[in-house]
Amino acid sequence: MPLPADTDATTPKYLRDKYAIVGVGETTYTRGSDKTTRALGTWALRNAIADAGIKASDIDGMLSYSGNDSTSATFMAGDIGARLNFYMDCIGGGSSTEALIGIAIGVMEAGMCNCVAIFRAMNGFSQVRIGGTGARSLAPVNGDMLHNRAYGWQSAGQNFAPTFMRHMYDYGTKPEQVAMVKVVHSEHASNNPKAYYKKRYTVDDVLNSRMICKPLHLLDCCVETDNATAIIVTRADRAKDMRHTPALIRGIVGRCSKPRMDMHYQHGPISRVAGYYAKNILWPNSGVGPEDIDAVGAYDAFTFTSMLQLEDYGFCKKGEGGEYVSSGITRLGGKRPQNTSGGHLCEGYTHGMNMVIENVRQLRHDVDDSCPVGPDGKRQHTYDYREGGCRQVKDIEVTANLGWANPMTGSAMVMRRGA
Amino acid sequence: MTVRGEYLGMALSIDDLDGENVTYFKHCSEHDFHLQKCDDCSLLRYPPTSGCPWCSSPKSTWTKVEAKGEVHSYNEVHHAIQPAFKAVAPYMLLLVDLDTQKGSPTEDDALRVAANLMTADGKFAPPDMVKKVGIGTRVRMVFVDVADGLSIPQWTIDETAKQPDKPWRYPQE
After folding, report:
1. What per-residue confidence (pLDDT) applies to A23?
2. Residues 173-192 of chain A whose Cβ lies under 8 A from any Cβ of chain B
3. ipTM higher than 0.90?
4. Domain count, chain A
5. What's the Cα-to-Cα distance from A6 to each of A86, A284, A418, rounded to whole Å?
6. Domains of chain B by residue range
7. Chain-wide mean pLDDT for chain A?
8. Which domain holds residue A37?
9. What's the gap in Å between the CA of A26 and the closest CA on chain B?
């Protein structure tokens, strides 16, 4: 990667490039796992350990996030045979992966442990559905919930819709432009053998799918799946002995928020999202800007969430997200492909972590598509992005992940290819 | 004493420790809309909180507020999740800028009060009424009684206000 003028990567400034993701792993993305979140989590952790080429006993730190729908590190660590010097399980969703990587770096920098595994395990389809269907929809409505759930305003789509709708009003964003997010991510998913939905969709498919909650059609919403994902973070100098080219962590911003988190709609413009604030930490800390990014993982719980974040992180001007996502820039083969695994809209849903995993594999130049595997065990990428083909971004050096909890809170991370 | 009630099949409650919500909904049960006004900086706030979001003062006085305003944004739920809402879908959630304190303390701020679109007598709006409402529609508050000390504030079209020629709606009906 041609570093910008501020080439102090070897200095301790913001700990740039000092830590790396050295292992990634996941379960299959299914609906109906027939497994506990404990079994799913340990499956993903074992895969990440094998991927890194380390022993389970090398892991001495563990972090996880959930919405009270998972199993904690206390059980996972025992099941993989690790003795921990540090662990913490926190509540949270889509703004967690990047934020927890930041915490992992902090605790390692403080000398509290040496190698941290981060996991997310969930039966998001067969047990606890994020939208609040099933048992969650029958829960008592108490206190502050009287200002939202009592109005049938509780699922993520219902909660975010006023932001999306106002964006269309403020900037003239068209439904067919937003639908292109799904179209492009589905093209990428068709080249991902492990994606839950591999079908390629058209703009008409999206606009003709049934309305869930205006402005969200069914195909504007992500898939709900049962799965677990895990990543392993350690110091970059220790990564030299491991199996893969490390993905160096260049800069992070975690759970950065808009004002009035008790009800962020009190402060406008409501079509603005947390990236507006987060970009002022992400880019200076990383020493790069949007123009330096080769591929993006833009959280796609909904088509709109991807687009709004791209605007507020500065990949295009505010209000021009509709044009940006329908311009071809975001496609494989385009200037800055995004969600190359198919993302949450198609691959599967694990609250952001699978899009970090995808970028780690992209940076290794060894993404798991259908290209033939060569004698060195690495795929011989064809860069033919037609359906069922390659999804490796050519010569990729720098990636960004834009994590989203809701319009008011986001996390983000820049990684670059290590040596 | 905990306030309890049942509304659309949901068990609603307010703990007696939750003084802010107890007071807010008590005023609503008297069909009166009151918000907390900061004793130090004089700004109103919504929803009820334990301190002022602008100056952090814990002291406030419940103050009567004119419950009228304009739709700032909305959602329109076609696929309801909570069982009782399925019968009233499509239903609207309106995010309404109150006229009171709009544009203050900064031009981006407003007291944005979220509630459903109802008929004037407090029933969920029928589909033809839903189609008339969008960004810019002028609304006034109505109250739906649930229990002693608990009424739900809701929005209905303000029949006496000058309405926009055509409120902005999502292009696909």
Report:
1. 98
2. 174-175
3. yes
4. 1
5. 34, 10, 18
6. 3-157
7. 95
8. 13-127+223-372+380-417
9. 30
